[in-house]
Fold this sequence. Notes:
With about 500 residues, the protein is α/β, with parallel strands linked by helices. The protein has three domains: about 260 residues, Alpha-Beta Complex (Spore Coat Polysaccharide Biosynthesis Protein SpsA, Chain A), CATH 3.90.550.10; about 70 residues, no CATH class; about 100 residues, Jelly Rolls. Helix content is about 20%, strand content about 30%. It has eleven helices and 28 strands. The strands form six sheets. The chain has a six-stranded antiparallel beta sheet, with no helix packed on it. α3 packs across α6 and α6 packs across α7. The longest helix has 16 residues. The radius of gyration is 24 Å and the shape is globular.
Amino acid sequence: xxxxxxxxxxxxxQGRTMPDMxxxxxxxxxIPLILCGGSGTRLWPLSRKSYPKQFSSLLGEExxxxxxxxxxxxxxxxxxxxxxxxxxxxxxxxxxxxxGVTPGAILIEPGPRNTAPAILAGVLHVAQADPGALIxxxxxxxxxxxxxxxxAAVAAGVPxxxxxxxxxxxxxxxxxxxxxxxxxxxxxxxxxxxxxxRRFVEKPDAARxxxxxxxxxxxxxxxxxxxxxxxFLAAVRAHAADLMAPVEAAVAGAARDLGFLRLAADPWGxxxxxxxxxxxxxxxxxxxxxxxxxxxxxxxxxxxxxxETGAGGATHGPVTAIDCEDSxxxxxxxxxxxxxxxxxxxxxxxxxxAVLIADRSRAQEVKQAVAALKAKGVxxxxxxxxxxxxxxxxxxxxxxxxxxxxRIVVHPGAALSLQSHMHRAEHWVVVxxxxxxTVDAEVRLVTENQSVYIPLGARHxxxxxxxxxxxxxxxxxxxxxxxxxITRYEDVYARGQGAKG
Length: 501
């Protein structure tokens, strides 16, 4: 046992006080390994491939990712290791900075390979410095309102993890849920005392779920794990040896990139695409389960969101609900009023570019709708209306033949790349802040209510030298207006060529 702050490993949070801390005497420093990939297609149209649900503020002001960061911060927790995709790396860094959490490392996957390779890469990275480190693997998109109770459950699992067990956390079931995997426990839960795990149970049908709920010896599988680096690596070598060589090579060949650690692409692409449950957990014999009786949800579909927003007639945004029951109505667009009259058991989610209306009982089928849209080549299937970039974001306000109007927001101190376009010219009108604009050899300041013209082919750049967000309206004209019509000459974010690089 060491006093608070007495462990020599790095701490995750500077200058933040956390409510409901775990006790002053902390047994270990735990390294959070947070998985921050995925697409969350069952929460379409709010969650899409280009901006998945963990970055959205589904419930409250903070995103689910930021809630996870807060939950796994404070005394007893080290700087978190994040595993994410290249397109999300700047969103991750921006949201971590806003949450006041400093990462231990942000690992960039060259491509999605499922949870087993992602976790293994994170564990190998941590093990380089401390093979005996305690690691807590957690998704970035779960809702656990009582952070203190969860941290207490994690602390209860530390002795088992230190003894060589792989500890998972079993959620006390409240209904015969068919959308979750279950855990068959060797005994009836008693507080947070770890129990041996008999077996994993795949998502059951309704009858089997009801039977498991009645036994009192089953729990929902949260997909959260606590172990030492050495324990997990031994389990992978014993049960999924084909993962080791490619992932070890990807970590060994990782390259630093603007504060990120980019895993080597060639060996990473050779790693099996497999979940950690299938690869390791369902084969290992050294698993223990810490029961957790607090509230938890993976927010896997709109039915789950409806449940967590108070059920009944749940609303969000500029919504007017008249005589609506057991429905979820959300407007996610500024100035877009959503009105429901006499609705029962429905989901209605309005975005600037797409609207979902579904029977609440069929919420899990939204994923199928996304697949159908993708097959038709519909942009909204994967692309979010607000396109996030390392310097800020933009959104399209109007579009037609040979023209497009955008709102662009550039954060203080940020800069777009020095670039040119082959097929379009641009007009910029500053509506907030001050822009430093480069057009070929000329550099000048453009303030509110002033504009600048960027001829086709001109090398140009926009920077925000101020202390507030720079907001401007851009009017594009030309034969082709795609985001891939960009030639970059200089870029502080090292994105290379193409739409995002």
